[in-house]
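Just wondering, does anyone understand these tokens?
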Amino acid sequence: MTFRPTDMEFPRVACAVVPLFPLASRLRSEPDLAREAVAILDGEGNAAHILAATRAARAAGIKIGQTLPQARALCPRLVARARDPEGERAAQEALLEVAESFSPRIEDGENGTVYLDLEGLERRFPAPGGETDFGRSLARAAERAGLPARVGIASSKLAARIASYELAFRMQSAVPELADISGETQATSKLYGLDVARFGDQRRLY
């Protein structure tokens, strides 16, 4: 997708990101696990390691990169699930469908990420609350699809992505068991692309 200039001074781009996407997609298909100590494993056999975990699991000491035996030693009641490629594909498709209901020009960012060109936004979400209303509406629509997305809006894809991650860091989510990543380590932040430098682009967080 090529973003085109709008009537505004700069083109505006939205980025919707689902934090801890492998976990989010699993809980979308197994919602009863949302408040349990759940970890998603990547790899097979002795090479398998923890890729993502719910707040309850992290509170028990589960960390990204641990092996399953290491994790179970800390949390015997841990519910371990392998990554679910089919479930992740279905969740990504659902996210894209939500985005397409807001803009005809979207780009699949993969792994729980989608970009939207906001050209013509003002026709559906007029000023003064246009971008704010749009961001909140997009986040609510994703939530209804079982995906707790965080939305950033900026003048470039990179800045919008950074904005969405900034929001994920400081959010007080309605489903903290799934999406609260504010307490993650630097290694976890790197794994999810959160160690990006912040810079002075005008951006908004929803």
Summary: Strands lie at 13-17, 38-42, 49-53, 79-82, 106-108, 113-117, 150-154, 204-205.
